[in-house]
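Limitations
The structure tokens in this dataset are predictions for the assembled complex, not deposited experimental models. Users should treat interface geometry with appropriate caution, especially where small molecules or nucleic acid strands are included. An illustrative entry is reproduced here so readers can see what is and is not provided.
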Amino acid sequence: MKSPISNEPMLVLELAGIEIDYCPLTNGIWLDAGELEALYEDKKAAEDLLASFKSEEGNREKKIRCPICNKKMEKVLIQTRVVIDRCSRGHGLWFDEGELLQVLEMEPGEGEGKVSGLLKEMFNHQLKK
Ligand SMILES: [Zn+2]
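Predicted assembly:
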């Protein structure tokens, strides 16, 4: 799969047993449909999160294309804090650098979530190379 930002092939990385696609040039991450839910340990929180996504029609960030169907993706606002790109056909979600971590840290609970910890470790490792 090619990165919707750099158009270069993405790397497949494993995060907590889930395969994610990572763009090494921009540090962006693509999640196929269902993968964000799978990364959340609390399934109810994941459902609430997805239900809270709001389409941002007036957003002026550059539109990018879905790496699966190549249609322009829509901007969605998550809990008034993070704007990500979503394929309106339901193929998946694109997170620019750091955005996936912000979203994972919205998971309610004590202290740092396991998955966000793994993600930080992975990125430190990636960035050192
Ligand atoms: Zn698509």
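Some entries come with short summary sentences. For this one: The two ends are 22 Å apart (CA to CA).
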